Queue: 3 jobs
Job 1
Amino acid sequence: MEKELKSKGLLIVLSGPSGAGKGTVCASLRKCLPELVYSVSATTRQPREGERDGVNYFFQTKEEFERMIHQGELLEWARFVDNYYGTPRGFVEEQLHNGKDVLLEIEVQGAKQVKERFPQGVFIFLLPPSMKELRNRLKERGTETDEVLWERLQAAREELAQIHNYDYVVVNDQVDAACDRIRSILMAEHLKRERLFQDQPDWLEGL
């Protein structure tokens, strides 16, 4: 039986400032790429309206989260605006081993940790069309006080300073267009020579 030439699963890291539309873009990607595995992050922040535990996030107490840190159960973790965020590592490693593409929606601090452990990952930074639009999106949420809004805008400027750590930049001017750009990135990454042949170096000998 001929061996199919295919690349292993991709670890895709999507970051961007709060209000860039990461959650909306990820939800759209899951619809158009049903085979894509979405890694659910753990967090200590309060759920927003419509969010469900185990679907959008694993909502945990500060004590529960700190136990996971100490026991090495997180691929990455970060503290952002007085809340913890992190990625349970066991699930991610299992999916990659099984050849699945895994999408992580995480903050820039966490992305830096992941890149140290998985430099072969695909790192994408999602941008809003402008800082003015970012501010408008945050205000329209109606969930942040003026103080928290100011903190998130300051954090956004700090996150933008880390954009050089990413492989790709995608502007989220329209959700469908942003998703199309990300799909093109993933297609190209799967076709890279080093990904195709790294685990099947003898494949060409059968031609």
Job 2
Amino acid sequence: MPEEISPESERSVWSNPGDSTIPSPLALPRHRVAMYDPNNPRLRLANATREVLQHSATSTAHADVFAQAAALLEQAAALLEPGPHGRSYHASAEGAVGGATHGFISHSPVTGPLNGLAGLIELESNPNEIIATVTYGDAYEGPPGCLHGGLIAAIFDEVLGFAQALSGAPGMTGRLEVTYRSPTPLHQPLKVTGRFDGIDGRKIMTSGEIYAGDRLCAQAVGTFISVKAEKFAALNLDRHTRE
């Protein structure tokens, strides 16, 4: 059976010493181990979703094959629809003030291994930066053979969001500026780096790059605005009220 991660264990993994409300990105690899267990049925579902998205973007099969695949997906949707549904929303990026991470990290549409929309991103961390590695397929294509520019911005928002949590007073994105230096290729490993650069009042400064091998593909500068835990708790309460 895959390891279950309780909110209590997440909090002990992510919290900085002496502060139970600020999660630490330094625990990223440790937290994600259980979510990458090949026997985890939720991961199997997410990986199958990734495969479907990839093949549906490129397949030239006969219409009958698409009809059969659609019928199977409709059965899967009908199986999942009755629920129960719901999850916590605590994060290390914008939601870092929440104090735990399972809901966002596992289900993020950018880095969540349990979200079939996300690429399978490996994360590493040290005291000053977050490093992500990922390879994208044709389902994420923008220009021919290249990663969609909007997704590049989303990746930066996520990785810089992890990096800003190193400030100890994390918040939400205030400004994100992306400079596209060269086409970002599909089907090649990409290295994404996000750094915590400093604090000015409530402003948290970050920067990062995306490389394909030795080639610089894009750069980003991000400013995050520190948010009190009470503000994030209010957003979370409002979210649950709407569900």
Job 3
Amino acid sequence: MSTTTNPTTTTASSILAQYGPRTTSSSSVTAGAVEDMQNRFLTLLTTQLKNQDPLNPMDNAEVTSQLAQMSTVQGIEKLNQLVSELAGTAQMTDMASLVGRGVLVAGNQITLTSSGGIGGVDLPAAASEVKVTITDQSGVLVRTLDLGALDAGSHNFVWDGKADDGQTAQPGIYKMKIEAKDGSEPVTATALQLGQVTGIVKGPKSTDLQVGDLGIFTLDEVKQIM
């Protein structure tokens, strides 16, 4: 077993450089709710005018009042839409700075490059002992790392690529398992895997991060930014 240290900026950059080129992608969803509302209103008003009682026609003031109300509603809707679009644009601008950066998200894979591998662990409570078991895709033990005592929260670690027998493991994707305990009591631990942000995805309700082949994640699901 060996004790690991937090990755330096150089180490993280070297590992991420082997994940592939930075790319950006985004998608947006727009709606013509305001136009639809206006069309429905005009259709209804036209129907009312066609079917009105010739002996008791609609008052011009009433028609003008309804048109004015529609104009007010339309203006409010457009203002709300503009504010929403501006807020979304500001958020996307902020999140765009994450493209190319490494992030830790929940997952049990660790990618070993020629520069090493980075993983992480998320703890709901402090643990006096945390161990990481790394196996190949067949389940054969490759390396056991002793992270020692850790506080509650998210932590990262570096695997130097060495196996327990001292040999250098082949670059590739490995599996990891986290075991944590505080004294004799087990502590639930979540393994974190490293991914590179490759794009920003804007949906109808939120703006999320495309993390390479790992998938799409919300900002709340990102535990660390490297």
